[in-house]
Amino acid sequence: MTSASGSNADGERRIVSDAAGVVVLGACAAWSLITAAAHDGRPEGVLLAVLAVAAGYAAGRISGALLPVGAPLAGALAGIALTVAVPHLAPGPQIAVPLGHAGATAAVLTLSAGAACCAAWAAPAPAVRFALRLLAAGIAVLAAALGSTSGFVTCLAVLVSSLAAGRTRHRGAGMAVLAAVAALVTGLIWAVAARAVPDGLVAALEGRLTPHRVRLWRDAWHLLGDDAALGAGPGRFGELSTTSAQSLLSDGKPHSAPLQQAAEQGIVGVVLLAAAFGWVLYALWRGPRPTPVALTAGAALTALAAIAAIGNALSFTAVSVGAGLLAGMATARPLADESASRAPEAQARGAGRTPAW
């Protein structure tokens, strides 16, 4: 039986996490406008990303409360359909497509695998759980078939993390590990951009990610040095980066979300980006869903953070919406749970006595 004090505490935790999200996302939008005004930048891309995350999170909270199994399953299938149906999203020999679409493919498929695993943990029947985990494994195979090696690795990592989450008792420790992984990947990218790693590691990364991308990272690092407080202004990396200007198919981005924030919005922009990721982990930690669901969603979003640290995934609106959807569904309280917690109170009132909370 759930006590009234327990229900109130759960409601207070959700209010605090939601308020923190409003503050963080609002600060991200406001800072982009401030830096744009200071350097004549273009904040539309940042504002669209913030709006996409907020809309996806709200939709995820509503759909997750109504359909705790069906909503994440529908999200996983939608991600698969988007990857297969949109030619420019899937990697391939299309020479007219700018760099970054391979990262978007990996990101969408990773979020789809995470949604399928969340649906598996929410399903009551073992056979349904097994089928949904097979779907997640199939998403990893699809990533390999499309030539997305990073997507294959991250989908498998999400599946393995989801299985391990069933044996994890302390949710906070799992969230701390996920935060450490994201910080480690981001720190490595910053070290490469600042030339603070051995040449052998840089050569290995250039062989996997191309020298062009590493040079873009270093241009972003130099722009941060020019104005560490405000950056160069949102949307101005392409016109200020020498490497980007020399590329025939440049999209004007450094292909690293943390470095793009640093170059265009300064240190404060990086802190706000980290705060947004920290807010998602906090909401999952304090959310009402079972620990395996929360840790599975956290693993998928951490994998997305790693992909965004070395690629251009967050520049695609579908990825931002998908991240918000997954976070919202994994923090939603199913209506069936609320009805079950209120049933004893209703029975007590119907019998004409005070509930024994």
Characterization of this structure:
There is one protein chain. The protein is mostly helical and 357 residues long. 77% of the residues lie in helices and 0% in strands. The protein has 15 helices and no strands. It has helices at residues 4-39, 44-66, 70-85, 101-122, 126-145, 149-165, 171-193, 199-209, 211-226, 237-240, 242-246, 257-286, 291-310, 317-331, 335-350. α4 (101-122) runs antiparallel to α5.
Identify the notable features of this structure and list them briefly:
single chain, 357 residues, mainly alpha, disordered C terminus
SSE map:
Layout: H1 4-39, H2 44-66, H3 70-85, H4 101-122, H5 126-145, H6 149-165, H7 171-193, H8 199-209, H9 211-226, H10 237-240, H11 242-246, H12 257-286, H13 291-310, H14 317-331, H15 335-350
Helix pairs in contact: 1-2, 1-12, 2-14, 3-4, 3-14, 4-5, 4-6, 4-13, 4-14, 5-6, 6-13, 7-9, 7-12, 7-13, 8-9, 9-12, 12-13, 13-14
Low-confidence stretches: 92-99, 343-357
Structural class assignment: mainly alpha
Number of strands: 0
On the 0 to 100 scale, the average pLDDT is: 86
How much is the radius of gyration in Å? Answer: 21 Å
The first-to-last residue Cα distance is 9 Å
Order of helices and strands: HHHHHHHHHHHHHHH
Number of helices: 15
Largest beta-sheet details: none
Task: Give a quick precis of the structure.
Helices cover 77% and strands 0% of the residues. It is built from 15 helices and no strands.
